[in-house]
């Protein structure tokens, strides 16, 4: 088990290294650096000014060297200004240039400076991850029970009318990407002029000029309420739910054909009892893995939903960083994403062993 | 003129779709009449879900095909005074021979929402199936040897596939699909590698079958290579001497990114199926006969894996459509004029609360197409399991 964990962590580090290098390469292409210079120093600067801005900020060294700087294996760049002050990658963090360490990269725990937010990357990511954490928490709270209930109800009597309608619902939900359901929800529920809200107002169920739900989730940063958080959460949960529900259904139908279920029925155990006591535990092993593997996929939805509902979380930061080519922020964001992907894989593998004693790893 | 009511709008839209209805009726009559002779496709008409799915997919396919006859206005032309017009608004200034209404209203630039949605179907359906097909060929060509031969090859390929899969799709899109990237050699070199695989795939497919008959082999492999490299030169490098094949840098960029995201998933599926099938008796029989590894992979394992692969292919087209929509939604890789559904949704986002029809029409179109593909896949799965 320990060897398995160690190997997994080794693979994780290797993957993170490869991925960050790819991200680093793609964000440091000359054209991308030019974009960066223009967003930082003004969009109308000349080519020569772009070059001097890049040189001034340490972007002119070879790419591999700068990747090393970011990793913290190569000493950070330093340069003496015309007025004798010293500028450098590692000097921004400390008051006294003499005290600055030679290397500063992720190995030293320094994730760099965000050019878009003009703050240390770790601060930006830390604050935003918290916001997304709440979003994900509510998504999981809504999505998992709903998906399991739909899947179990559909799978316990294969081919019944309940099964057919719930399966169609699950298929429809997998066919509705976040940008479709989000748009439909906003148009239907979050507008004071169209959709259901004016209708309800005219019936006197709602006060004038209020929408059923809020289409802008920014206020959820201060306080999460039913009013401002329902639509973003539902939008993500709906798309992720269908897949989990279908896996649960497949797993449930398989379990229901097993001999021990038949034995239980022949013994005269009531149907609800069979489902709850005999089938459910075995049927939930496969969905558990899928739910864990689904979490990184939710990240896509998180980016779309946070942009659509202007909720400043991790996804929104990723979007802003990508649009502004904020190199170090993008690198840190991709590290976070990779860690989430590989960690959930690990949890799903380890959890699988605990849930299903027939499996042995290594 | 008065604005149209909802019934009139629906009626007029149904009338515009007339070529599609005719084509659908012909397809369905013929298919149902001969369904016993049509194999898996015919069996589709035994399952209600499969039939509904096929109906929706065929509807959009014919819409894309007959789009020129269906649209009421040029999807790019701006009707004066029609900005954000409500559905069924009559034209403010009617020119000679112009359709009298904006059936589903106007968008922020006073273009016809209905015609744009119809043209959007063509945009989506020219890219999605082909991107899915290329992804499939890459996934198959790499997944078969990974599963069949195993060993270091398998470890290496699986690591690379997992690497791509660990990338958040959106981040990859932001990095790969950008105007700055289009100017570099990256999309072209990626296309150079990715598009080479289908050519090699067909070459190996033909070669492994006919290598015992040298004359036939030379003829067929030569034909495949000639055709393959003709298409390859045009699609990957935009250097087709005859000018038949070609892709704009924009399109190539989108295409490559979508294929790159999809191929590893297909690879994993194919590898899994291969691992299962290679233990079967007919594979052992072929090995005993002395067949080469590529023959066994291409002509013993692949045909027996077709069931799940066909099902996944339908799902993959749907997923590719969703990915294309995502790209459009973030304004990546498409020209601002483009009527594709993702970017129209994005355009309509700003006025969503006052004029929802702008975003709702493409959103519901996209959803219905993907739903149709998923239902079709479900029907196919059900019917192929019955064998």
Written overview of the protein:
The complex is a heterodimer of chains A (about 350) and B (about 375). Chain A is an all-alpha fold. Chain A has helices spanning about 1-25, 30-40, 45-55, 65-70, 120-155, 160-175, 180-190, 195-200, 225-255, 260-265, 270-285, 285-310, 315-325, 325-355, and strands spanning about 80, 85-90, 115, 120. In chain A, the strands form 2 sheets. A two-stranded antiparallel ribbon of chain A has the order 1-2. A two-stranded antiparallel ribbon of chain A has the order 3-4. In chain A, helix 6 (about 160-175) packs across helix 9 (about 225-255), helix 7 (about 180-190) packs across helix 12 and helix 10 runs antiparallel to helix 11. The longest helix of chain A is centred in the middle third of the chain and has 36 residues, at about 120-155. The model of chain A has no long low-confidence stretch (mean pLDDT about 85). Chain B is about 70% helix and about 0% strand. Chain B is built from 18 helices and 2 strands. Chain B has helices spanning about 5-15, 20-35, 40-45, 50-65, 65-70, 115-150, 150-165, 170-175, 180-185, 185-195, 195-210, 215-235, 250-275, 280-290, 295-305, 305-330, 340-350, 355-385; strands at about 90, 100. The longest helix of chain B has about 35 residues, at about 115-150. Chains A and B meet through helix 1, helix 2, helix 6, helix 7 and helix 12 of A and helix 7, helix 8, helix 9, helix 16 and helix 17 of B.
